[in-house]
Specification:
CATH class: Alpha Beta
Helix content: 10-25%
Number of helices: 7
Largest sheet: 7 strands, mixed
Structural class: alpha/beta
Radius of gyration: 17 Å
Strand order of the largest sheet: 3-2-1-4-5-7-6
Shape: globular
Strand content: 25-35%
CATH superfamily: Vaccinia Virus protein VP39
């Protein structure tokens, strides 16, 4: 999937976070990592810092992203850097998160290896991604990416052996009108004609997974 946050910022702006009524991972991941006393937390591909914003006081969170546009409005500490070459020393982090971003990379394995490198023993990698069978109301299937839910666990297990996977498959996103459906199609690289498949208001079935891997 193209990382077009700088070249096509209108695609990113076409989405509305209120559409996802259930199932977003940022706040639950922040709560769990805080409970695990993971510190510091490096949020790779963290964009505008939603995960870091959700962390409780006293937990250090650092947003790492290669998009200047996203980092302009990012919350908290921010670093412009590549997920495949993190500017941190070995074994320094309590957790590395890669939420909704590994499918932007040609070789997500390289970012996973970097996470392994910077994690302390006992530290956590957390990654999330969608299934190619996501949004069946709008599409008969998304084109494969380099990190879909169908293969994500296998990719993580190439370096991590202690892995837990949480799957979801239920209505989570509510689009109230046709304009919202068209904007959703734009944000998810779907053709405008996909909007003709539904009559709003409509709930979209979200399919994907969240992976916790311990070093």
């Amino acid at each position: 999937m193209p990382p077009d946050y700088d070249s096509d910022p209108e695609r990113w702006r076409s989405t509305d976070p209120t559409w996802q009524v259930f199932g977003d991972v940022h706040e639950p991941v922040a709560d769990r990592l805080a409970a695990l006393r993971a510190d510091p937390i490096i949020d790779v591909g963290g964009g505008q810092g939603r995960l870091v914003r959700a962390l409780p006081a006293g937990v250090t969170g650092i947003v790492v992203d290669n998009s200047p546009a996203q980092l302009t409005d990012a919350f908290g500490q921010r670093i412009l850097a590549d997920a495949q070459q993190l500017p941190f020393r070995d074994k320094c982090a309590g957790a590395v998160t890669a939420l909704w971003m590994l499918y932007h990379l040609d070789e997500p394995e390289r970012a996973v290896a970097e996470a392994w490198r910077v994690l302390r023993p006992g530290g956590w990698l957390v990654a999330s991604t969608s299934s190619r069978r996501n949004d069946p109301e709008l599409t008969d299937g998304y084109p494969p990416t380099t990190f879909d839910a169908e293969e994500a666990e296998q990719i993580i297990r190439r370096l991590f052996t202690e892995v837990t996977v949480e799957h979801w498959n239920e209505p989570m996103t509510h689009l109230p009108n046709r304009d919202a459906v068209l904007r959703y199609c734009r944000s998810h690289h779907l053709p405008a004609e996909a909007a003709d498949r539904v009559t709003p208001p409509v709930w979209l079935t979200k399919r994907g997974c969240l992976i916790y891997a311990r070093r």
